[in-house]
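To assess whether the prediction recovers the assembly geometry, we first specified each molecular entity separately, as shown.
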Amino acid sequence: MKNKRHSIKDIAAALNVSVTTVSFVLNGKAREKRISEEVTKKVLDYAKSINYKPNQLAQSLRTGRSKIIVVMVEDISNYFFSKLARIIEDIAYDKGYKVLFCSNENKDERSRDLINLFRERQVDAYVIVPSPGIQQDIAELVSDDIPVVLFDRYFPEIETNYVIIDNSEAVHKASQHLVDNSYKNIGFITISSSQTQMEARQRGYREAMQANNLKEFVLEVPFYEKNIEKVKELIKEYIAAQGLDAIFFATNYLTQIGLEVIRESYPEKINEMGIITFDDNDLFKIYFPPITAVSQPLEEIGEELMTTVLKMLKNASDKPYKNQKILSASLIERNSSFPNKSRA
Amino acid sequence: MKNKRHSIKDIAAALNVSVTTVSFVLNGKAREKRISEEVTKKVLDYAKSINYKPNQLAQSLRTGRSKIIVVMVEDISNYFFSKLARIIEDIAYDKGYKVLFCSNENKDERSRDLINLFRERQVDAYVIVPSPGIQQDIAELVSDDIPVVLFDRYFPEIETNYVIIDNSEAVHKASQHLVDNSYKNIGFITISSSQTQMEARQRGYREAMQANNLKEFVLEVPFYEKNIEKVKELIKEYIAAQGLDAIFFATNYLTQIGLEVIRESYPEKINEMGIITFDDNDLFKIYFPPITAVSQPLEEIGEELMTTVLKMLKNASDKPYKNQKILSASLIERNSSFPNKSRA
DNA sequence: ATGAAAGCGCTAACAC
DNA sequence: GTGTTAGCGCTTTCAT
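The predicted structure of the complete assembly is given in tokenized form:
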């Protein structure tokens, strides 16, 4: 039972009508084109009976639209991105779009390869977490009138739509929370990177320390250090040297390594030190102690991203849709940032 | 600078040669078709200068191949699947294929919608974690000679390629590990589901208990119970009622809920009870105590999946490639499954 | 109310 | 060696 694919032509032939008629009917233009009830029904019934599926490739070739949106993130296996992917996927399918997810590993070359790949495929729009050096490539997409929305970070120098969160405000507030809970020597572990979101997070921390007349302790882990053991060593020394009573981890990834270091080298400190992480994760709430986290509004980001993209897709190039959105993150307070408290 | 897209025709016109020549050159068939060095170079140079990108849609329409592979999993935001996605993505891009990831939420209707969606798009191959009731749909794909590989679970009744792991063996061994560490009342928390992998896991547990003359304590959480609080309640009562000294969680998801219950209701037990989870997660190794986990060989699964798909794609329908692979999971022993041991 | 036909961009058999 | 052309499946203008 090798039911080969049926084309619009097959239907036309079988029903003794023209492809035009079939096309009109199938595209719901029967009324508008004043196709007779009878023919309309005949076509519809037959199409159903053979389980006709239009060839979207041909359709896209003809219309120039592929109904595909690319979502390029740093690493799809990252909790934040994969959760977001799930949300975006739902919205897109709902609107008749498919979503291609891909990871650029924060590398420019890979980002470029991917963008080129998809341009060849006439992808309709791009949602991108840009790697540091692809400003030019993004600018090109924009100038070619291809809908692009950046998120997580962006390029202040070019005119693009983006959805980000107010990183510095979020970190500032979270740092203040530590101060309010009477931690005095608050360390900030981040990566050395000039990405907008990382700079903003560090700024938030520094501002909070200055506002409270506290000393700043920043550890910048080399961005491209792939050797986890080295990173662990750095963090281990840093904790020992500075006499910290609290640590703010600027990324989820660093938190995981940091917690491992604490467990291995300073197990007694896990219940003493104040700990806050940027980006939540399901497992942080069941940790001992539960870890306080700055949580990005995933749903909101996903929705904002998609409404922006869909609006850009709708508005032709004549009246470009502009949307630069800065959302707020929330602080989920858990035991790890409270001293002298029963800390299960 | 709205550089509109260039077509092969544009090139031909600009260079005063035919589209055929251009096509041949661009497809690397210059030698084979004995196009002169001169023309070849001219075309290549010009194509480069205008940054020519072939329209893949047209190409696919013509060749019938889209160079897209669909990977449909239960939930792309799940740790296991998202990590695997990352691995598959890399292999695929390397071989010139793009990958579309999507989540079926283990629902038949959604699975069907997605499959239909992609069939319309002439996707080349499918890698699928099947929802329970889509046996028929899978069988159809197979009978239509469309490459399909199932994984995580499969349908024993139909002849398909698949890559799974030996769930019962893995759980049996891990259960034995608990017995060897002198736990006596070992509970098994799973979901009520007839999926092959879940049945195999439960079988492994039961076999191990029987082999050791130990009593079996199985809790089956209703599969479609979306209310987490209810699930927590079930687990909480179960732990209290059975006097267990160890628990085996059959899925990562249950482990998370279970750990939360323990933290909230039986904090003193976290360091006494033996705990093993199915499927590892980065965070389990930094937990207090670190959680022993049955770990699926992600890389191996990803590679096996992709080599299978690629081979099926290569071998035309004449000599179907057969590969039903059963891999082994490994037990990562951490403190949570050892009693009387310093448990940081 | 329906049909013929052009054309989206590309490939490849065939012609010269 | 290079060009002509049919056709992949569809949409849509124009004709009848």
